[in-house]
Design goal:
This protein is mainly α. It is about 65% helix and about 0% strand. This is Cytochrome c oxidase assembly factor 4 homolog.
């Protein structure tokens, strides 16, 4: 019988309170993050995991850009606040 993956997130354990896991989960990129971790565990060499790393990086950049746009829409421009 195969042992469960160390990155199996279907279990509820002490990892649930990990702030990094919580932050990544909010980005929508968690599965890609776990793919990087699993690749690293399998190959023990980050160079063998470049496609997973790039996919995760792209996802995080998309999240950050969307977040930045969302925050910019909330802030009044300097001319709007000066007119008040």
């Amino acid at each position: 019988m195969a042992s469960p993956s160390p990155h199996d997130r279907s279990r509820k354990d002490e990892d649930e309170d990990d702030p990094v896991d919580r932050m990544i989960s909010r980005t929508g990129c968690a599965e890609l993050h776990y793919a990087v971790q699993e690749c690293m565990a399998e190959h023990q060499d980050w160079r063998a995991c470049q496609s997973q790393v790039q996919t995760f990086k792209d996802c995080m950049m998309n999240f950050q850009n969307a977040r930045k746009e969302q925050l910019m829409k909330r802030q009044p421009t300097s001319t709007e606040s000066a007119a008040s």
